[in-house]
Design brief:
The protein is 39% helix and 15% strand. The chain is α/β, with parallel strands linked by helices. Strands 8-9-10-7-6-11 form a six-stranded mixed beta sheet, sandwiched between helices. A five-stranded parallel beta sheet has the order 3-2-1-4-5, with helices on both faces. Helix 5 links the parallel strand 1 and strand 2. It is globular.
Amino acid sequence: MLQIEKKKCFIELGKFLSQFSLDNNSKNDAVLHNDLFFSQFIELLDLSQSHNGWFTPEQVYFAVNSWANTLTEENLNNWLSRYNFDTVQPKTIGLILAGNIPLVGFHDFLSVLISGHSVLVKTSSNDQKLLPFLANYLIAVNHEMENFITFTDGKMENFDAIIATGSNNTARYFEYYFKDKPSIIRKNRNSVAVLNGTESKEDLEQLGEDIFRYFGLGCRNVSKLFVPKEYDFQNFFQAIFKYGDVIYYEKYANNYDYNKAVFLMSNFKLLDNEFLTLKEDSSYASPISSVFYEHYETIEDIKNQLENDAEQIQCVVSKDLIQNSIPFGKTQKPELWNYADNVDTIDFLLKI
């Protein structure tokens, strides 16, 4: 099956996904196979929260809309034009996927198939429904796709390379178990924002999107702020007030109450706006409903620290303070060529 044929399948999938939004699911008669998939997908989206309590309609539809906007011919061509696929020797690539946010493993799934390989997928128990459904849609668009896609619930067997995502603990297991295979093993990472006090209200509102999207569960969510000494958080708290409804979601509220109580019982000094706590801490991984912060003397100090801690960091957000940083509000809208852990997945797949 030629790459151009696979690309057409994903473009059709993008058109299919573009019909769905939180406010209005609008059926387009020009989209392929709506008779089979349109109503089923709405039902699946409606049931997503029963499969994973964090997968609220707002979060699931956001993920779907993001991929609808990404899977266009222009984006795919721009991405793929950077590589030479002429020497690819088709192999079977195992994927062990995370399930912290909806469709978090879709980029790996797409990368394997579009590069000419077959995929053997082990989904997370927290996200078992969405990706298989989309795979079935691809197969309906072109039945040859069925020859390249396999899902498994059991032991990973008969594969040539592996891409596995998990915690630091599971990564050690992956590294041992898959030591004889070419691999990409992803560990815990966190994202940070660097502020200097000149940010506008709009900038800080967009930073709220980077913090609260997916309830902060993703590695691209900002979990730590670097701020100058004597930084006044009043503008920050005012700007993120629009996200306050997050406290009405029970699972988030339970985490807020628990983590705040733990901090207070430990006599930690907190800044608090009744739905988010800020705690001064040198760590990068803050718990749900909390963001850590750390003061800095100079931007050069932060640049050096981020460079030294690069393996712990997924994204850096700033207003052009740090080279190659991401604009506020964009962490959960990566381009196809923005790779997890800055490891070029396509390059890996071309060389195995």
